[in-house]
């Protein structure tokens, strides 16, 4: 429901899904599954620290507290077709685990980019896991095709989600009553 963008004629839109498994050596019970899921959300929810899991972001600065409408200024690593991006927090729901942003400025070509990421607990092969869904909508830049724009953005998001999976799978999960 939160991923229903309505792209205009000159826009492209898509969804990506990643299933993140909790580490094998932990007890597969309900509590572990919730702890693991909250670990994943704890990385995603930090609007002020996207560089903790997004590999292309080198630095992020903000003025003041995080809230709906806050702006973050992001520096992008060298080698990419951009150096900066200014992004606004549009949706933040700590109960439903939804984060939505809009890119409002920067020296890149992604105009009117909006994305929504949601995080859901799930069971994969009887083990605790987490489902992450990210969707976006963006203008197709002049001189580019919808397919190429979608391919470019999906490639960046895939890297972000793979990195999110790797970091969360590596993080120690507390084992209530065992440690
Ligand atoms: C995100 C998603 C995207 C970020 C893109 C698509 C970007 O940070 C990079 C290269 C660009 O050309 C555009 O959730 C921009 O971060 C890595 C600077 C916005």
UniProtKB/TrEMBL annotation:
Subcellular location(s) of the protein: Cytoplasm; Nucleus
Domain of life: Eukaryota
Regions that span the bilayer: none
SUPFAM superfamilies: Bet v1-like
Stored InterPro entries: Plant_def-hormone_signal, Polyketide_cyclase/dehydratase, START-like_dom_sf
Record GO cellular component, one term: nucleus
Signal peptide: none
Alphabetic keyword roster: Abscisic acid signaling pathway, Cytoplasm, Nucleus, Protein phosphatase inhibitor, Receptor
Any GO MF annotation of the entry: abscisic acid binding
A Pfam short name: Polyketide_cyc2
GO biological process: abscisic acid-activated signaling pathway
Family from the record: Belongs to the PYR/PYL/RCAR abscisic acid intracellular receptor family.
Name the record gives this protein: Uncharacterized protein
Organism: Linum tenue
Lineage of the organism: Eukaryota, Viridiplantae, Streptophyta, Embryophyta, Tracheophyta
